[in-house]
Structures are given as C-alpha cells and as structure tokens.
Amino acid sequence: MNYANDHIRNVLIAGHGGAGKTSLAEALLFTAKSTDRLGRVEDGNTVCDYDPEEAKRRASLSLAVAPVEYDGVKINLIDTPGLFDFELGLHEGIRAAESVLITVSGRSGLTVGAQKAYKLALKHGKSRMIYISKIDAEHADFYKVFEELKAEFGPSICPVVVPIEQAGGRVFVNLIESKAYSYVNGTAREVPMPKYGHREDGLIEAMREAVAETDDALMEKFFEGEPFTQEELTEGVRVGVKTPVLCGCSTALAGTDMGLRYIKKLLPSAARGAGCVAADRDGNEVEIACEAKDPLCAYVFKTVADPFVGKMSYVKVVSGTLKADSPVVNSRTGEPERMGKLVFVKGKKQTDAAEIGAGDIGAITKLPAAQTGDTLCAPGRVVSLPRPEFPRPTLSMAIKVKQKGDESKISGALQRLMEEDP
After folding, report:
1. Are 376 and 356 in contact, with CB atoms under 8 Å apart?
2. What distance in Å separates the CA atoms of residue 14 and residue 87, rounded to the nearest whole number?
C-alpha cells in the first residue's frame, strides 16, 4: 500500500550498543501487528538482526529497515548498529530519516553512543526523541537517567511518559493525557492516577514550562497558573519542544503503544521534513520539496550485495514517484540507469512494489552502476544531493592470496565489500 507523504514517518533508531534498539524495533513491530510473534535478540530471531553473524553475536552489524503500519501512517523504522566498529549504518541511515529516536538504557544511563547519535541528529537538523529502555531491569533508574539527559542536553529535554513505582506495581504515566497505565502481558490497562511526589510534580512543571516557552499565549496561561489542554500540550511538544522523552520495557511490551502513538503525533512527517537542498549541473542550489507531483529525485543510502538477488540499492524517494519503468538518470555518472524490480523491505523480507512514493523508502534490485550516495533523477531535472560523510578508517590491513589464481575471486569479493561499506 502506498501512503501520502504526510502519512509517512522515517525514524532512525540509534544509541549505544546494548541499549535495546533492536528490541525496541521488534516491540513496535509486534505492538502494531506488523509481525505475529515477538522476536528476541538473545534467540537470534528478530526482524532487524537477520544476518547469521548478527544472530550469532547478538548485536546489529548493519542498518536494517522495518516498516510499521499504525493508525493510518507508515513508520519506516531504520535500526542501526550501536557498536562503533559498525557505525557506518548510523551515517547511512541519518540521510534517509527525518527523526532520530535515541535509545538510552535505564540501567547504563547516558553513554557515548547516545551522545554521538544526538550530536549527529543536531548536525543534520533532524528531530529527536529519547526512549529510556529497560525500565524493568535490575538497578534501572529512570529519574537518574533523566537528570543526566537534562544536565547534558539542557532545557530541550521534555518528559512525556514516566514510570512510577507504587504498592500495586509499576505504572506508566502519560503526562500529556494525565492518564496512568499498567501492563500485563503487553496489554495496557488504564489505572487511577497515582499520587505524585515532589519528583513527579517537578516533571509535570518541567513539561508545562517547556511547552509555555513555545508560544506567548501559552506563556501567559502558564504564569496565570491555568492548566493547558491536551491539544495545547501535544502541539507545544510537537512544534516547540526539541526532545520529548518516553520510556518503557520493550521485551515486556510495556509503554510501546505510547511509543507508536507519539512517533505519529510528535515526530515530523516526510511532507514536513524530507525536503532538502540539492545542486544542479552548474552547482547552483535547488530546493527539492517532498511532493509527489514534482520530478523524481531519489537518494541511494545503502548498497547490499545480496547472495540471492544480487546487488540491491536502498533508496529514499525525496520527490516525485519512482516506478519500475521510470526514466532515471544517475547524476554522478550522467548516464541513464536501467532498474530491476522495486521492493519494500522488512528486515530480510522483500515485497514487490509497483511504485515508491514521495517520502517513502524502498529498494531497487540490480541497479548496476549506482553507489551509496548517488542521486537518481528524472532526465528533465538532474540534481545532486549532498554525498554522505563517513567516519575516517582507523585501521589498515593487507590481504595476501593463499594460492595463485585466486586473485580475481578475492578482487571481486573486495569490490563487493567496498560497495557495501564505503
């Protein structure tokens, strides 16, 4: 099914290794009924960690895309590795997303991986949301982690969903709705709002103050002590607050329903965030709006040498509509590209697509000349989007062939490696 650009969210999931990114993606997929079972990283059966090496190591080694259809919107989750040896995935995916969902472990707290993801989001002008994971883990402390976030990132940090421990067990309080929920076997049940202590009162005041600063009329209401409506709070957080903070337990499916709700409500659509500036053939700047009616402009953000289907190029369609018979020019080579099939990908699963619309993400098989970072355009408007900046390599190695005659095999394999990992 094709979605309009204002019904698409492209969300990069980033953070430190072991913070729970793939588990969060898995929980969001299952909660939205995009999968029929909840996979576990420990069991090696998640949608995003589908490579045998990833299952063996219990860690993401490359970027994976997993679309979720939820309440009339399509959310393209882009799960990236947290291990620094494999941070290519983070730099590939940032250009395909409008938002970065930064996962921070409730047990480990703010780590270097989360800081790097936050800075990369700032550098590329992406919206940000923070998810404090593993609230159910031993020694997890949401409030300690929240204070670390406030100290590091300042007043842009705004609480939206917070956990409260009480005699009957843990509840998750939605500060925008002023409602509390408990979870049993992943099912949410509304419960009476708990009595707040000083700490919770402070969080509510922090959210009200952050929202008030987004609008003069709201600031006046804030100083007069008037309560904000739910719509005012939602709009204030969406438009003015830079980094809403949510929390949950992905493996227990606690809080992930609110994660989906606020990805839809608070993060920008492709219509609002996917437009960008490109350069024409003379080097002049050209505004590219994310509009289906405009000429085609698509960006190749990842290349995979698939052993079964051959080369596969992951693309983000910035403007226009990509069809299998679309005439396409590669702006780097200046030559037309002959395309294979168009597919939507969910982990390793591929579904044939008749077209990929403006703001959406898909893949093209057998695109022989295309490389990561290329721009594919309509012949009538050839433009180049900025090429990606990747971290500098820090280690060099030489490969020596074991037996004569293997040079060509090794050379071909190295060429594919270089295509996959620039």
Report:
1. no
2. 10
